[in-house]
Amino acid sequence: MATTPMNANGDQDSVIVPLLSVQRTTPNSTSQVAIVGSKVCPIESLDYEIFENELFKQDWRVCGKVQVFQYIFMKWLLCFLIGLIVSLIGFCNNLAVENLAGTKFVVTSNMMLESRYGMAFFVFATSNFVLTLFAAIITAFISPTAAGSGIPEVKAYLNGVDAPGIFSLRTLVVKIIGSVSAVSSSLLVGKAGPMVHTGACVASLLGQGGSRKYKLTCKWLRFFKNDRDRRDLVTCGAAAGIAAAFRAPVGGVLFALEEMATWWRGALLWRAFFTTAIVAIVLRAFIDLCLSGKCGLFGTGGLIMFDVYSENVSYHVGDLPPVLALGVIGGILGSFYNFLLDKVLRVYNLINEKGIAYKIFLACLISIFTSCLLFGLPWLASCRPCPADASEACPTIGRSGNYKKFQCPPGYYNDLASLIFNTNDDAIRNLFSKDTNAEFQHSSMLIFFVTCFFLSIFSYGVVAPAGLFVPVIVTGASYGRFVGMLVGPHSNLNHGLYAVLGAASLLDCS
Fold first, then answer.
1. Which residues of 406-421 are buried (b: 16+ CB within 10 A; e: fewer)?
2. CA–CA separation, 10 vs 300, rounded Å?
3. Which sign does the torsion angle of CA 336, 341, 346, 347 carry?
4. Which domain, by its residues, includes 101?
5. Does the first or last residue of the chain, that is N or C, have fewer Cβ atoms within 10 Å of its Cβ?
């Protein structure tokens, strides 16, 4: 506040006026806020390092050895807690997906065995519709920031951009539940991306001592109140998410190092390795527990996509040209995949901008289209006789397996249904499996590749937690195995190895 100056008669006005006039209505067209919009952007930038001012230096000098040890111990303890919690979430996520999707496939298959095809389609489509609708509703109404994979948000945070709400407790809960529902609904979406976001949310909440909004805080956890330490914890959480999704501790660290963070230190590398190692150990313990049949329909599926065998693979110079062709094809397909995905997401954004009702309607429409397509395509494949040396029961009566009966007579199986009426992890395992060169037809593999290629593009933009890693792996594995089937008589390599190479090439280029 300030007084008015002298008037013309030399008298001082007694009226006190504010320094900034409250009656000014003319907008300031030169300010950044006026140019961008009327609302101030809530996004802020992070500090890459701690401000080493005099207060910080003085506070650090007075710290004793006990306090320094406590600071270091708390870092490792939080990394241990991140690995433990993320591994538990990853296991429960896979357990729920395998049981939800498994029950759906078992009920549908049983009705197919009874020749009740109409009722089987109704159960299959209705289950997918309800699961998709549930994932879309909780995402649209409770936490819109939980939609998508969450990797762009985590990457932005680790590169210095702090957006509100991306690591909140609400986002974490919706991310977990919505991902389970979306993956179980037969939408061609993955759970690896949501697991990265989930791990980052867990790390952020632990770093700040919990959720203050819901009064779920622990004072002894509120130890790190600077951006650098919180960013390090989020990096460990993102690495733990990949490790929990693929049971790959080294892969999680490399993913965080190469794709996520731009600020890296040697100490952070060791803590990230420690976090992912905890994830691998805990997951291994739970998998061994479930192998005894104590986890419902979750047995050998879910977390292990393929096993590493000790035997050596022999190859010749003539096997190199098909492998090089896989790389070239993967580059072309990956570029085309990105081009189509960009166009589809632009259209989806125009629809989603119209309101929540349009978002939910789009998700339901994609679900109905997916159900009709997945149930109808196996009818195009011809029945194949069960191999005499099959390593499992043929045809498969349960949920997972390489020999789905579908509409075939006894002693025959439908190879295309064996890929479609399975979870994505089981489909990948079937494609990666060795000594199965004669199990799939060329036409079935080509149909499955084209279906996965386009369904993964159309399914990604819906308002639900969804990732792209697993769909791209499925798509690449199908085209890689198709190439292996084409060059099979002229190559000594197993078709499952071609599937692995195809998945790697498409994943690298998309």
1. bbbeeebbbbbbbbbb
2. 94
3. positive
4. 69-290
5. N
The answer to whether residues 93 and 192 belong to one domain is yes
Domain with residue 158: its CATH number is: 1.10.3080.10
Both 244 and 338 in one domain: the answer is no
Of the CA atoms within 13 Å of residue 142, those in its CB half-sphere come to: 20
> Which neighbouring-strand residues pair with 210?
217
Burial of 473 (0-12, 13-18, 19+ CB in 10 A): buried
Q: Find, among 459, 452, 461, 474, the residue nearest to 369 by Cα.
A: 459
Burial class (CB within 10 angstroms; exposed 0-12, middle 13-18, buried 19+) of 170 = middle
Q: In terms of domains, do 347 and 402 share one?
A: yes
pLDDT in tens, 459-478: 998 999 999 999 999 999 99
Q: Which residues pair with 44 in a beta bridge?
A: 162
> Strand, helix or coil at 296?
coil
Q: Both 334 and 285 in a single domain?
A: no
Given a contact cutoff of 8 angstroms between Cβ atoms, the answer to whether 226 and 248 are in contact is: no
Contacts of residue 327, defined as CB under 8 A and 6 or more positions apart, other chains included, come to: 505
Tokens of 205: 């909440």
DSSP output for 189-211: -BSHHHHHHHHHHHHHHHHTTEE
> Residue 159 has what DSSP assignment?
T
Q: Measured on CA atoms in the order 65, 70, 75, 79, is the torsion positive or negative? A: positive
Look at strands 161-162 and 44-45 and give their pairing. Answer: antiparallel
Q: Which of 290, 305, 337 is the last residue of a domain?
A: 290
Mean of the per-residue pLDDT values for the chain? 82
The answer to whether residues 369 and 482 belong to one domain is yes
Using CA atoms, how far residue 89 sits from 77, 85, 175, 443, in Å, is 18, 6, 11, 39
Whether 362 and 462 have beta carbons less than 8 Å apart is answered as yes
CA distance 209 to 292: 38
Identify residue 131 by its one-letter amino acid code. L
What is the percent of the chain where pLDDT is above 70?
78
Which uninterrupted H or E stretch holds 451? helix 442-460
CB 246: neighbour CB atoms within 10 A?
A: 21
Give yes or no for a contact between 202 and 237, defined as CB atoms under 8 angstroms apart.
yes
d(CA 293, CA 310): 27
The gap from C-alpha 151 to its chain's centroid, in whole angstroms, comes to: 8
Written as six digits, the tokens of 320 are 């190199």
Asked if 396 and 404 touch (Cβ cutoff 8 Å), the reply is yes
Using the Cα atoms of residue 478, residue 479, residue 482 and residue 488 in order, give the sign of their dihedral. negative
Length of the chain measured in residues: 510
Residue 29: the pLDDT is 38
- pTM over 0.90? The answer is no
